[in-house]
From TrEMBL, chain A:
Subcellular location: Cell membrane
Topology with respect to the bilayer: Multi-pass membrane protein
Function statement: Cytochrome bo(3) ubiquinol terminal oxidase is the component of the aerobic respiratory chain of E.coli that predominates when cells are grown at high aeration. Has proton pump activity across the membrane in addition to electron transfer, pumping 2 protons/electron.
Entry-linked Gene3D superfamilies: Cytochrome c oxidase, subunit III, four-helix bundle
The protein's assembly and partners: Heterooctamer of two A chains, two B chains, two C chains and two D chains.
Entry-linked InterPro entries: Cyt_c/ubiquinol_Oxase_su3 (IPR024791), Cyt_c_oxidase-like_su3 (IPR000298), Cyt_c_oxidase_su3-like_sf (IPR035973), Cyt_c_oxidase_su3_a-hlx (IPR013833)
Name assigned to this protein: Cytochrome bo(3) ubiquinol oxidase subunit 3
GO cellular component: plasma membrane
Keywords: Cell membrane, Membrane, Oxidoreductase, Transmembrane, Transmembrane helix
Pfam families the UniProt entry points to: COX3 (PF00510)
Any GO MF annotation of the entry: oxidoreductase activity
Top-rank lineage group of the source organism: Bacteria
TrEMBL record, chain B:
GO cellular component terms given for this protein: cytochrome o ubiquinol oxidase complex; plasma membrane
Membrane topology: Multi-pass membrane protein
Family: Belongs to the cytochrome c oxidase bacterial subunit 4 family.
InterPro entries in the record: Cyt_c_oxidase_su4_prok, Cyt_o_ubiqinol_oxidase_su4, Cytochrome_c_oxidase_bac_sub4
UniProt keyword annotations, A-Z: Cell membrane, Electron transport, Membrane, Oxidoreductase, Transmembrane, Transmembrane helix, Transport
Intracellular or extracellular location(s): Cell membrane
Function (record text): Cytochrome bo(3) ubiquinol terminal oxidase is the component of the aerobic respiratory chain of E.coli that predominates when cells are grown at high aeration. Has proton pump activity across the membrane in addition to electron transfer, pumping 2 protons/electron.
A biological-process GO annotation: electron transport coupled proton transport
Annotated protein name in UniProt: Cytochrome bo(3) ubiquinol oxidase subunit 4
Stored NCBIfam families: CyoD (TIGR02847)
Length: 208, 110
């Protein structure tokens, strides 16, 4: 193991003291996020079994999923990952808080769009197909899995609002930079989880 | 610029190069996403084939997310992060694989 840990996202030479501080805090946050992935893994495992054996006479995945709506949700979240990347660049290279705020704002809007589209999708499943969580084991774990991701994204949006307030009050100081870097890791990993959700839940459900 | 810590060259690339990385990542992940949706939407793959194809595309796309958005590559300084991620991948594979194995086996016995 190397003595010096450089978290993937970093400040490099643009802010050396904070870059050094980031080694420990950001690595610690990585460990936390990996345990969060383990939580999602268990939900995925349960879903894999329930989506095949847990239909219980209720609607099957292929009947209730909508390819187009899932695609729009995916594109919104993917675009938000990119805008957060641009925010991370602004954080690293520009002391200009305006570019950072604009990219963060764009990320917030795209994240909110994702939540809106997913909520609309759930509403459609419930009203058109009567697909409520208590109908079958498949639907219980479907709402639990996508709902857990939904709550994570909503928490990310709340975190962004808190960071916007901190940026306004404290400016771009070291602590704020470190928190934004951790928020970046959190946000990108939520997109990684969504890749698994759209592949193994929605797309494989639509191609039985 | 103080340089009392060793900054690997792979990280000291400058803003323009780093922006190109993000753009490359966006193009790669978008292409993989559209490929997965296109294959399923056109009905080109289904059943077991679909699962294999989707699994492959998902793994490649997740690797692209780590590489381009989270800056995890094979550079020496990232090995702690990479080992952590690979260990998590092992745990995830054991938990998912084991659960699926046991539950499907139990189902055939019922």
């Amino acid at each position: 193991m190397s003595d010096v840990r450089h978290p993937g996202l970093n400040l490099g030479t643009t802010d050396s003291p904070v870059h050094d501080a980031a080694e420990e805090t950001v690595f610690g946050f990585w460990v936390l996020m990996m345990s969060d992935l383990a939580l999602f893994a268990v939900l995925f495992a349960t879903y894999a079994a329930m989506s095949v054996h847990g239909i219980a006479g209720g609607p099957a995945p292929v009947e209730i999923f909508d390819l187009k709506s899932t695609l729009w949700q995916t594109l919104a979240l993917l675009a938000s990952s990119f805008t957060f990347g641009m925010a991370a660049l602004a954080l690293k290279y520009d002391d200009d808080r305006r570019a950072l705020s604009l990219w963060l704002g764009a990320t917030f809007v795209l994240g909110a769009l994702f939540l809106g589209l997913e909520a609309r999708d759930w509403a459609r499943m419930v009203t058109e197909h009567g697909a409520t969580p208590q109908v079958s084991g498949f639907l219980s774990i479907f709402y639990l899995l996508t709902g857990t991701h939904f709550v994570h994204v909503a928490a990310g949006l709340l975190w962004m609002l808190v960071m916007a307030a901190q940026l306004a009050i404290f400016g771009l100081d070291g602590a704020v930079k470190l928190r934004l870097m951790r928020l970046a890791i959190y946000w990108h990993l939520l997109d990684v989880v969504w890749v698994a959700i759209f592949s193994f839940v929605f797309l494989s459900g639509l191609a039985p | 610029m103080s340089d009392d810590h060793d900054l690997p060259r792979s990280e000291d690339v400058g803003e323009a190069a780093e922006r190109r990385q993000y753009i490359r990542g966006a193009v790669a992940t978008l292409a993989l996403t559209l490929a997965a949706f296109g294959l399923v939407g056109s009905g080109y793959v289904s059943g077991g084939t679909a699962l294999v194809v989707l699994c492959t595309l998902a793994i490649v796309q997740i690797a692209a997310h780590f590489r381009f958005f989270l800056h995890i590559d094979l550079a020496r300084s990232h090995r702690d992060d990479l080992q952590l991620i690979l260990f998590t991948a092992l745990i995830v594979a054991l938990m998912v694989g084991g659960t699926v194995w046991i539950l499907f086996d139990q189902h055939t016995r019922m």
